Amino acid sequence: MRRLIRATVAVVFALAAAMGLGTPSAFAIQGGDQLPNQRGTGVAQLWFDGWGGDQFICTASVVGPTKVLTAAHCIDKTVLPQDYYVLVGSTHRGEGTRIRVITWGTRFDLAVGTLKSTVVNLNDVRHVQIRATQLSPKVGEYMYAYGFGRTCRDCGPADYLKRARLRLLDMDRDAAGGPGYRMRGVLAFLWPKDSGGPLFREEDILTQYGVTSERRSNSTIPEFYFARFDPNAMNWLNGMNVPVKTGW
């Protein structure tokens, strides 16, 4: 299956939730490093409560005063945007400040959510930057993907935020055919519930360079694909009022 989460009709989605099957899975990290339980992070948690039960869907990042960024395939366009909310400011899954999403905008496998209220006055939220002038990572460079979720094939979601170290193999496409990176984990793998999480350079954990998109197993070693911010993506993000030119 090319995408980790595909939009499904609302009836099927509701029946799955009612039967306890949950939503289709996105990635999460196996191996890697567990971050300490603390408040003060720019990584967010995307949740869904459209049918009465709260379900953790994907990872996201806080990229503006009222903006979060995640993977477009995490979003079911057959349901109301307001059925989604984010938890921000905590590395503990299920904790943090809850803010409702009011609209979504998507481009390839990127999705920007507009929040009902600002995060500017929340001391626990770190500001993740996407800069129009930032230089793209180079092939061979090591980077970190951050995410919540299960830590093995049969595990439940992790209690705390984790990160995986990966090596950039080359430029490729994301799950929706947009510009992307192809990467391979270093003693770490991505499993469901990590889609939408941010990609950072090793030396710069507050500037985001991509969004976790999908896992492909075309070889014995899984490879991971991330949506990349090319100039067209930067222009789109700017049009979505993500402060890529001014910072925040």
TrEMBL record:
It comes from Peterkaempfera bronchialis. GO terms for biological process: proteolysis. SUPFAM superfamilies: Trypsin-like serine proteases (SSF50494). The keyword Ion transport does not apply. SMART domains: Tryp_SPc (SM00020). This is Peptidase S1 domain-containing protein. Keywords: Disulfide bond, Signal. Residues 1-28 form the signal peptide. One of its GO terms (molecular function) is serine-type endopeptidase activity. Residues 29-242 form the Peptidase S1 domain. InterPro entries: Peptidase_S1, Peptidase_S1_PA, Peptidase_S1_PA_chymotrypsin, Trypsin_dom, TRYPSIN_HIS. It holds the Pfam family Trypsin.
